[in-house]
Specification:
alpha/beta
Length: 486
C-alpha cells in the first residue's frame, strides 16, 4: 500500500490558497457522475511502478500500463458506460491532481487514512492485504522474528503505513525512509538495509521475480482504518462514489480480483522478466532521451530569450520595470524548481488546462531565465564603460550601442558561465518526472520497477547524461574558441 510522501503533502499546502480562486472541482456534488458520463471518459490517476497493482510492461517494444488496479478501472469504466483514460503521475502528485481536477479518480493502491478522508472521498475497500518483510534470501534464517531486527536498518517508503508500522512495532530497529520502491529494493540488494517492509502483494511479486529475495509474513497489527485499499474521488462526489461502489460490489461478489485480475497481473509480470536486459528496454531510454532533449532545448532557447529581456529590464530607467525584474529573479532563485513545476501544473493548471509536458517546459523556461538573466547582467556590467562612451561619441543610440557594442562583448565574457548553466539545465530536466513526464529519470524508475534491477538502469542513465553533456561541452568550447578569434 502506497502512501502520500512529503512532497505531495507539501504541494497540497502550497496549492491551498490557489484552490480558493480556481475553478471548483465538482462543485455540484450530485453532478459528479453525470459529468463523467457526459464527457465519456473516466480519467484514472495512477503511479505505474508498484507491481502487481500497476506497472508497465515492454510488449513488442511498446510500453503498456497493466496490473490489478488497471483491470478494476476497466471494469468500473465499462459499468459507467465510458472509456477509461489512464494518466500516469508520480505517487506524490496524485492527490494534488485529484483536487485540481486533473483526474477523476485515484486508483493506485491507496489506503483511506483519516488524514486523507479530510480532503477527498473514498470508496469502499476493494482489496485487503497484510504486510510482509522482504529479505535477501541468504539472510532469511538470520531474522526469524521482528525482534531480531533490533539495531538493524529496516526500510520503507517515507510517509507510508509500513513506515509507521516499523516506527511503532519495531522501535529498536533503525528506521530508514526512502521515496520509491525501486530505491528500497536497490538498498536491500546492496545490503544497505537489512529488510524492507511492503504490502504482501507487492513483496510477493518482487520475491517471485527475483531469486535473491524472499518475502516473509511480518505479523504486523493494523487497525481497520489503516487496512485495505480504496479508490479516491474529489470531496463531495457522492453520486460517482456510489456508482463506483456498485462496481466494486460486483467485483467482490464475483471474486474477480483473486480469480482473474491478480492472475492477469502475474502473466504480465512474466512478460517483463522474460528479458530484463537493458537492450530490451532501449525504447524506454530512447523515449526518455527524446523528452529530455526536447525540454532542454526549449528551456535553453526560451530561457535565454526571457533571461536577456529580464537583464535589460534591470537597466531600464522605469523603476517599476526594474523592480519587477529584480523581484522575479529573487523569487525564482529562492524557491525549489520542483515546487515551481508542481505549481505551474497544478496551480496555474486550475485556471488554464495545460498538459504535463507543457507545464514542465514552462517551469523550466521560467526557472532558467532567472539564472541566465543574472549571468547576462553580469556580462553587460563587465564591459568597459569606455566602450559605451566611444559609441555615444560616434552618434550611436543607446539601443544600437547595446546591440552592436555591449552585447557582443558581453557574450564573449559570459560564454563559459552560459555553458555551465546550459549543462545544469539538461540535468534539471529530471525534475519534471514528478508530474509524470516520461523523460529519462522517469523511464529509469519504470525500468527498475519492471525488471527488478536497480543498478543497471541507473548506469545507463548516467552514461546517456554524460554523453549529452560531453557533446554540449565540446560544442560550446568550439564556439568559445571561434568567439575568441574574432
Amino acid at each position: 500500500m502506497k502512501f502520500l510522501g512529503h512532497w505531495g503533502l507539501f504541494s497540497i499546502i502550497l496549492l491551498f490558497g490557489c484552490l480558493t480562486y480556481g475553478r471548483p472541482v465538482h462543485a455540484d456534488t450530485d453532478a459528479s457522475l453525470a459529468h463523467v458520463q457526459a464527457k465519456g471518459t473516466l480519467v484514472m490517476g495512477t503511479s505505474p511502478n508498484y507491481p502487481p497493482y500497476e506497472f508497465q510492461i515492454n510488449k513488442h517494444g511498446k510500453s503498456q500500463i497493466v496490473g490489478m488496479d488497471i483491470e478494476i478501472g476497466k471494469q468500473i469504466a465499462k459499468d459507467l458506460g465510458v472509456k477509461l483514460v489512464v494518466k500516469k503521475l508520480s505517487f506524490d502528485s496524485l492527490l494534488p491532481a485529484l483536487t485540481t481536477g486533473k483526474v477523476d479518480i485515484i486508483l493506485s493502491g491507496m489506503s483511506p487514512t483519516p488524514a486523507r478522508r479530510k480532503s477527498v472521498n473514498f470508496t469502499n475497500i476493494y482489496y485487503t492485504e497484510g504486510e510482509s518483510i522482504l529479505l535477501n534470501k541468504t539472510e532469511h534464517n538470520k531474522y526469524p522474528t521482528k525482534s531480531a531486527f533490533n539495531g538493524q536498518k529496516v526500510a520503507a517508503e517515507t510517509g507510508t503505513l509500513q513506515y509507521n508500522l516499523i516506527k511503532q512495532q519495531m522501535p529498536n530497529a533503525k528506521l530508514i525512509g526512502m521515496s520509491s520502491a525501486a530505491n528500497l529494493i536497490l538498498a536491500l540488494k546492496t545490503h544497505k538495509v537489512a529488510a524492507v517492509v511492503k504490502g504482501t502483494a507487492s513483496a510477493t511479486a518482487y520475491a517471485k521475480n527475483d531469486p535473491n529475495l524472499v518475502a516473509v509474513n511480518g505479523h504486523f497489527k493494523t487497525s481497520s482504518a489503516q487496512a485495505g485499499n480504496a479508490i479516491a474521488l474529489p470531496k463531495g462526489a457522492q453520486s460517482l462514489t456510489a456508482a463506483i461502489n456498485q462496481s466494486l460490489a460486483k467485483i467482490k461478489h464475483q471474486h474477480l480480483i483473486q480469480r482473474q485480475y491478480l492472475k492477469t497481473a502475474g502473466k504480465y509480470l512474466k512478460v517483463n522478466t522474460a528479458d530484463t536486459s537493458m537492450w530490451h528496454y532501449r525504447h524506454y531510454f530512447l523515449r526518455g532521451l527524446e523528452y529530455t532533449l526536447l525540454i532542454a532545448l526549449i528551456g535553453i532557447i526560451g530561457g535565454s530569450i526571457l533571461g536577456l529581456c529580464l537583464a535589460l529590464l534591470r537597466f531600464n530607467r522605469l523603476l517599476p520595470l526594474r523592480w519587477f525584474a529584480t523581484a522575479y529573479v529573487e523569487f525564482v532563485r529562492g524557491t525549489p524548481l520542483m515546487v515551481q513545476i508542481m505549481f505551474v501544473y497544478f496551480g496555474i493548471g486550475m485556471l488554464v488546462d495545460v498538459s504535463a509536458l507543457t507545464a514542465g517546459i514552462i517551469a523550466i523556461v521560467l526557472n532558467s531565465a532567472a539564472y541566465l538573466s543574472e549571468i547576462i547582467r553580469g556580462g553587460i556590467q563587465a564591459v568597459d564603460v569606455g566602450q559605451s562612451e566611444a559609441a555615444a561619441s560616434l552618434g550611436l543610440s543607446k539601443n544600437a550601442n547595446m546591440r552592436y557594442v555591449v552585447l557582443p562583448q558581453a557574450v564573449k565574457i559570459i560564454w563559459p558561465a552560459l555553458g555551465n548553466q546550459f549543462i545544469n539545465l539538461i540535468k534539471d530536466t529530471s525534475m519534471v518526472s514528478i508530474i509524470g513526464i516520461t523523460e529519462l529519470i522517469y523511464q529509469v524508475g519504470i525500468v527498475q520497477a519492471d525488471t527488478y534491477r536497480g543498478v543497471a538502469p541507473i548506469g545507463i542513465a548516467m552514461i546517456i547524461y554524460f554523453i549529452i553533456c560531453w557533446l554540449l561541452t565540446r560544442l560550446l568550447h568550439y564556439y568559445e574558441q571561434h568567439l575568441n578569434y574574432e
